[in-house]
């Protein structure tokens, strides 16, 4: 298997030889497919709690929920402050408005794979139906990280069974169990999937072309953040997703901080 390793922001052309896992020897195996759900939200937002409830139900009410990866992008508005807002949130929301071609008219706004807007009335059904129809993906993602309570780095490997072009990869740091205010609920609300940082370009970092059965490795991508929960690193996850030329998410993976999530194959 051909492997390409790079470390950004500086290019690194060194080749790493990595022992193959037992389940990587069969190139015909399909990677597990997961759906990416992005929730643009705010603690000041009166309409946001019902969407948060729906997302939590989607993740827990069905076995398919294990294949749903969520990122909650908290954003201030002109009058109200959200303590979970980060500096990059404004740029991410601005870019998201561009992607959605003005369909995003207010908060909350949530969508699947950055191309299908979701609605409270049928979000769960749409997500589950999509996952049932899409059990596998040609693209696999492997994640490892070295994180402290303020910064660190993430290494990601990408492998495809077919040739894929014009790809970008995205690395997000998210935090669970953040106890803070939520309009309409109170000051003791549990926020999960809270975005704390985005590595590199908010529009995505160039992955280029993945050749069939080749592996590309992005080593030690830097991240920095301010954590808000009591458990700190125990509540931190790394979320990595890949988008195509149309900005649609091809696949997504997540891993707890300072752990390694290997490629997942359909059994």
Automatic annotation (TrEMBL):
Ranges where the record places region Disordered: 1-24
Biased composition annotated in UniProt, kind: Polar residues: 1-18
One Pfam family linked to the record: Omp28
Protein name: Outer membrane protein Omp28
Phylogenetic classification of the source organism: Bacteria, Pseudomonadati, Bacteroidota, Flavobacteriia, Flavobacteriales
